[in-house]
Specification:
The complex is a heterodimer of chains A (363) and B (253). With 363 residues, chain A is α/β, with parallel strands linked by helices. Chain A has 14 helices and 15 strands. In chain A, helix 2 links the parallel strand 2 and strand 3. In chain B, helix 2 crosses helix 8, helix 3 runs parallel beside helix 5 and helix 4 packs across helix 5. The longest helix of chain B has 20 residues. The termini of chain B are far apart. The chains are: A alpha/beta (363), B alpha/beta (253). Chains A and B meet through helix 3, helix 5 and strand 9 of A and strand 1, strand 2, helix 3 and helix 5 of B. Strand 9 of chain A pairs parallel with strand 2 of chain B, so a sheet runs across the interface.
Chain lengths: 363, 253
């Protein structure tokens, strides 16, 4: 099976990847455009094979709190949703961050605000990378640009979550969730045993076997000094993640005059724009952040060196561009091309924007 | 008989449950929480479930339940305890999983999680402390506040036209196919305490036997919120609460 290439939809790939990783539980609520995750899991019936629990919750609020509980038990658990549902989950995300539990949350973004549209968007960027819920916290945010990365980032997300006792999220746009591509699935891994959890997650709430000292998972600490200490510990973890886990793909950036920064489906479409530009003799490189938080500051800085200008290509009204400006310390002209409300640009639209916003102005 | 003879183990008729630690409880004198905590600890110990018990504490006065009873605990966001208990029990079916919730947590902000966990027949126990008021936030109206009862947010007494009616949510839960046992008890007298203890034992056994969702409502006092002495609060409870919240089993299958 390992070498077998299959054709699969992004959302279905997430579901199968979760089973293959050895997930203990999925808790979710249907919402377009990611309902295929739950549908695929129900169809696969992993409770009959690996013993994985799959549960359709009564709401995204319940789902995220089920994930919070599972993570607190040291279990490998996930949920998936789309933008309005992700808003409902913010309370739970904040609690999980405060409780330092490892979990995987997937947001297949659709256009907002409000009910918005069911078509692709990247407008939850700030919500994902700047916190989203209350309090100071961060989420390890992975941005897949292919169906294969939907699969790969399930494993990466959980690996990082358990490494840092943090919440990982896969921030995919609706394009990546809905499109079909060839994909190679990993081998089935066994689920963690109770012994593994007791050894590797000594904090986990799983009963006082052998009358070990009791474990409590709580986000509450009314002693201000202790809560400040907790916050310093969270921040130290985040600095460690920023130091170790920045990921970025650089394409043709060694000798480019213009740099496009884009993630997810926008990076894919920008690649075609890059090719069209090359046909006209315009040298364009692409920096594709794979981790949106931690933002790949070092790679973007390196890619930006010597360029005439940078174009942020995003399905949001000026969110990614802020982190580009911060990363490059405003040393280079940065402009934005975006489509909003569920619309996705064609490659020539990106090339035209590059010409209008950067090349004409900067020469 | 000398004192040392009296306190010999074979003469002992009562002791603190070993799972109830000596931490100083933050509950007001006269509050029912302390009694119910003791019963929970006692029943878990007597059933030999201390190594598999997992409690989910609420937001409300019992938020710190985890500080007093020495088992593993999760602390839920306001109202979400049944969702957390659902996942915990499904992921670890061999554990005893129970929630401990107040009336605001369970029957206001957490109504959806409560009803759906019960309706799915989750093999958990829901312990529901109904004292008809929000204790921790300073005595505001709860869904279970009686008509005419004064609270910080209905200072002239609860009015049906302004605030709606008291919610007897256990009656609603008893109608759901997923519940196997729904009972309403109280702890104002020694006899009542014994009945509540038996109810908890039955509920926990149901959870371990996978019979479905068990709900033990405990009609309780909040003398501070009610602005009464502990003794007066016990009287008020009997005179006012039982008419709307009559004691006994609502469902026992």
């Amino acid at each position: 099976m390992n070498d077998k290439v299959t054709l699969m939809k992004g959302n279905e790939a997430l579901a199968v990847a979760a089973i293959r990783y050895g997930a203990d539980g999925y808790f979710g609520y249907p919402i377009t455009p990611q309902s295929e995750v739950l549908e695929k899991l129900e169809e696969e019936m992993p409770w009959e094979t690996t013993g994985m629990v799959v549960l359709q919750a009564e709401s995204e609020v319940a789902a995220i709190n089920m994930v919070y509980a599972g993570a607190s038990c040291g279990k490998t658990v996930l949920t998936s949703t789309s933008s309005p549902g992700f808003s409902l989950m913010q309370e739970g995300m904040s609690y999980m961050a405060a409780s330092e539990v490892p979990a995987l949350v997937i947001n297949v973004m659709r256009g907002g605000p409000g009910l918005g549209t069911i078509h692709p968007s990247q407008a939850d960027y700030f919500q994902a990378v700047k916190g989203g819920g209350h309090g100071d916290y961060r989420l390890i945010t992975l941005a897949p640009a292919s169906v294969q990365e939907m699969v790969d980032f399930v494993a990466l997300g959980w690996d990082l979550a358990f490494k840092y006792r943090a919440v990982s999220m896969i921030l995919a746009d609706g394009v990546i969730g809905q499109m079909m591509e060839k994909v190679v699935l990993p081998e089935q891994r066994p689920r963690h045993t109770e012994e593994w959890i007791r050894e590797n997650c000594p904090w986990a709430v799983n009963g006082r076997k052998g009358m070990r000292p009791k474990n409590i998972i709580t986000s509450l600490e009314l002693d201000d000094d202790k809560m400040e200490e907790n916050n310093h510990r969270f921040q130290a973890t985040y600095r460690e993640i920023e130091k170790n886990e920045q990921r970025c793909e650089l394409i043709n950036t060694d000798d480019c005059d213009y740099l496009i920064v884009a993630f997810g489906s926008m990076a894919r479409i920008s690649q075609k724009a890059m090719e069209l530009a090359a046909e006209e003799g315009i040298k364009v490189g692409i920096a594709r952040p794979i981790t949106l938080w931690p933002f790949p500051v070092d790679a973007i800085r390196k890619a930006a060196e010597g360029v005439k200008g940078i174009l942020s290509v995003e399905l949001s009204a000026g969110q990614l561009i802020e982190d580009i400006k911060l990363a490059t310390e405003c040393k280079y002209p940065v402009d934005i091309f975006h489509r909003l409300g569920g619309n996705v640009p064609a490659p020539d639209e990106i090339l035209n924007a590059l010409k209008e916003k950067l090349i004409k102005k900067l020469g | 008989m000398e004192l040392n003879d009296i306190i010999r183990p074979e003469n002992r008729v009562y002791k603190r449950p070993s799972l109830l630690n000596e931490a100083h409880m933050h509950y007001c004198p006269g509050c029912s929480h302390g009694v119910v905590h003791k019963l929970v600890a006692e029943v878990i110990e007597e059933m030999g479930l201390q190594e598999v018990a997992i409690g989910v504490s609420p937001v409300g006065c019992a938020v710190f339940a985890y500080n007093y009873i020495d088992i593993d605990w999760l602390e839920a966001a306001h109202g979400r305890a049944p969702a957390m208990a659902t996942a915990t029990k499904r992921l670890m079916p061999d554990k005893l999983v129970f929630t401990y919730q107040g009336d605001g947590d369970l029957s206001a902000i957490g109504t959806a999680e409560t009803i759906h966990a019960a309706n799915r027949g989750e093999n958990i126990t829901i312990i529901f402390i109904n004292n008809a008021i929000y204790g921790m936030t300073g005595g505001q109206m709860a869904p279970t506040t009686l008509l005419g009862q004064k609270t910080a947010t209905c200072p002239y007494g609860r009015r049906a036209d302004l605030n709606g009616y008291p919610l007897a949510i256990s009656n609603l839960l008893a109608q759901l196919d997923g519940t196997c046992y729904v009972t309403r008890q109280t702890v104002y007298s020694p006899a009542a305490v014994r009945k509540t203890k038996a109810a908890l034992k039955k509920a926990f056994q149901n959870s371990m036997d996978g019979k479905g969702c068990s709900v033990v409502e405990v009609v309780s006092t909040c003398n501070t919120g009610w602005k009464l002495t502990p003794v007066k609060a016990n009287e008020w409870l009997q005179e006012n609460m039982f008419a709307k919240y009559p004691l006994g089993d609502l469902k026992n299958e």
